Amino acid sequence: MCGYACESIFARTSVIEKVKIQVAFYKGKGDFFNGVVRWWTNSIYSHAEIVLADGYTWIGISPFLKSKVDSRKKIIIDHREWDFIDIDITQEQHNIVVEFLEETRGHGYDWIGMLLSQFLPCKIKHRERWYCSEWIAYALRIACVFDWKIIKIYDRKDLSPAVLYDLVMDIKNESETV
User: Fold this and answer.
1) Cβ-proximal residues to 109 (8 Å cutoff; 6+ apart), any chain
2) Domains contained in the chain, CATH given
3) I need a labelling partner for 22 at 20 to 30 A (CA). Which of 54, 75, 156, 167 fits?
4) CA angle 72, 74, 76 (to 5 degrees)
5) What's the pTM?
């Protein structure tokens, strides 16, 4: 799946319990900033979050709410404004995503890294700052949902919601053909 380190995660258990998470991509009208993100990335998506297996705990970071990595309960959703991609993962992978949330909870939004990475030929990254799709990509990589050899997060200066959508769809399509 993800190489030796991730294979050892799954070797400890003979029965692998699967759970479903979702990656939610915001396509609603939103505000001025949502429009700028969509225009700049040439995408219908301007934001992304992870929906945990319980179906109503959303995790991630938004520049428009607290501007910090956090979780929140979201019960009322306008489904016309979101696209959801279901991903089947193990309970252990789910636990790792939650552990990554706890490790990064309270980290701020990376306006400087996000903006400078768009204009410079390299990625600018602050250790304790994130933007929505970057945080999700790292969470899924650390949990071995993404194969680091394929997505090479560290080489990507663009991890926009549109790029994340393509990565998640590739993983979903790959897992469906196995």
Assistant:
1) 61, 62, 63, 67, 68, 129, 130, 131
2) 4-177 (3.90.1720)
3) 156
4) 160
5) 0.85
